[in-house]
Design goal:
disordered N terminus; G_SEPTIN_dom; alpha/beta; Neuronal-specific septin-3; binds magnesium ion; binds guanosine-5'-triphosphate; six-stranded mixed β-sheet; Rossmann fold; disordered C terminus; nucleotide-binding; three-stranded antiparallel β-sheet; 413 residues; P-loop_NTPase
Length: 413
């Protein structure tokens, strides 16, 4: 893993790294043991314990989170050397064995599963899908561009600099295959039209809710097909960045309503838009206020407390929950700052640097999404949100039987 990324593109994660948990969780976990769709790695710089795991439909992802965490240093360091070391004798017997059986056999090689999983992930790659939602004009489309032009995907830097981003009028998915250290991630960001402009904003969440459910439906249809694809393309939304207007005042009723409805079908990550319009104090105060209002309205955003798997998870996620919602700034323009090209917004009093943690929390958001919680976002999507949709759909159909291809059922989940 050490040759994966050159050190200069590997800044320390701005949020505490969370070791990815893979496959079947501990018995206390709320997740049922579902295979497909899970898997993934931190893209830019996985924490030491972040080992890629396959996403293939029935890949060997059934390892407990602790198993993976421990296996990494062992597997990564020794895989390859072990088989040779053991072919000639029992040099390691005793040191690796804990039960009577394995004492007799010596080293078995269970820890090489990590290396095997890593190789599989390198081959298959994985999908990661993000959606941006919120009131009109809050910088959603700009942030989509920022994500692709920032350190998430430096390679895609060829763009028309002076092109103004038009108002978004339809749901649009933009995808990019990003490759790092031989691991391929297909990152899709789904841009949505802003809402709140109409005189009547009733049910303005419907098109977005429909889109989310359509992706679940697509996946479900593939799953219940008699001849299933070896790997089902995953277009399900793994998270939804919900843009909050930087008003400094209470959240709008529409925001609360929207988040409440969506939070049952997708991982909601609230973000404060256009953070450059607030002072540091205003930003801190507003963040606190938003957290409180969300709590009072019973809106659970990601990472949801109820899905913390253990105390370590809880303590890591508590820190993140206290830092949310991340206050972000978006831009697709580059400027020269101290001899370096940076993404930023040029103002009369200076340049707001998008990826500078002293200026805004975009880097924190990016690290949280990709370096520490990517795997977990995929798991919660698959094991909780998709599972809820699937159970409801299969019940509606009176059991497990294939759904015909012209069945255009839409769920009101
Ligand atoms: N100050 C500031 N302005 C921003 C930021 N991000 C985007 N903008 C500006 O806000 C305006 C709207 O940006 P868009 O990205 O089109 O906003 P949107 O949310 O996609 O708008 P709709 O498609 O209408 O929903 C543009 O003039 C952007 O340059 C930001 O972080 N700070
Ligand atoms: Mg837009």
């Amino acid at each position: 893993m050490s040759d994966v990324v050159p050190p200069e593109v590997r800044p320390k994660p701005a949020v505490p790294a969370k070791p990815p948990s893979v496959g079947v969780p501990s018995p206390s976990s709320p997740f049922p043991p579902q295979g497909p769709g899970v898997g993934g790695v931190g893209v830019s710089a996985p924490p030491p314990s972040a080992i890629p795991v396959p996403i293939g439909s029935h890949g060997p992802s059934h390892v407990s989170s602790h198993g993976v965490g421990h296996g990494v240093s062992h597997g990564a360091g020794h895989a390859g050397s072990h088989p040779a070391a053991h072919s000639g004798g029992h040099g390691h017997s005793g040191s690796h064995s804990s039960s009577g059986g394995s004492t007799l056999l010596g080293y078995i090689g269970i820890d090489t599963i990590i290396e095997q999983m890593r190789k599989k992930t390198m081959k298959t790659g994985f999908d990661f899908n993000i959606m941006v939602v919120g009131h009109s004009g809050l910088g959603k489309s700009t942030l989509v561009n920022t994500l692709f032009k920032s350190q998430v995907s430096r390679k895609s830097a060829g763009w028309a600099r002076d092109e103004k981003i038009p108002k978004t009028v339809e749901i649009k998915a933009v995808s990019h295959v990003i490759e790092e250290g031989g691991v391929k991630m297909k990152l899709t960001v789904v841009d949505t039209p802003g809402f709140g402009d109409q005189i009547n904003n009733d049910n303005c969440w419907e098109p977005i809710s429909k889109y989310i459910n359509e992706q679940y439906e697509k996946f479900l249809k593939e799953e219940v097909n008699i001849t299933r694809k070896k790997r089902i393309p995953d277009t399900r939304m793994h998270c939804c960045l919900y843009f909050i207007s930087p008003t400094g005042h209470s959240l709008r009723q529409l925001d609360l309503e929207f988040m409440k409805r969506l939070s049952h079908s997708v991982n909601i990550i609230p973000v404060i838009a256009k953070a450059d319009t607030m002072t540091i104090e205003e930003r801190q105060e507003f963040k606190q206020r938003v957290r409180k209002e969300l709590e009072m309205s019973g809106i659970e955003f990601y990472p949801q407390k109820e899905f913390d798997e253990d105390m370590e998870d809880k303590s890591d996620n508590d820190k993140i929950r206290e830092a949310m919602p991340f206050a972000v700034v978006g831009s697709d323009k580059e400027y020269q700052v101290n001899g370096k090209r940076v993404l930023g917004r040029k103002t009369a009093w200076g340049i707001v640097e998008v990826e500078n943690p002293n200026h805004c929390e975009f880097a924190q958001l990016r690290d949280f999404l990709i370096r520490s919680h990517l795997q977990d976002l995929k798991e919660v999507t698959h094991n909780i949100h998709y599972e809820t949709y699937r159970a409801k759909r299969l019940n509606e159909n009176g059991g497990l039987h294939p759904i015909s291809s012209n069945d255009t059922q839409e769920s009101n989940l």
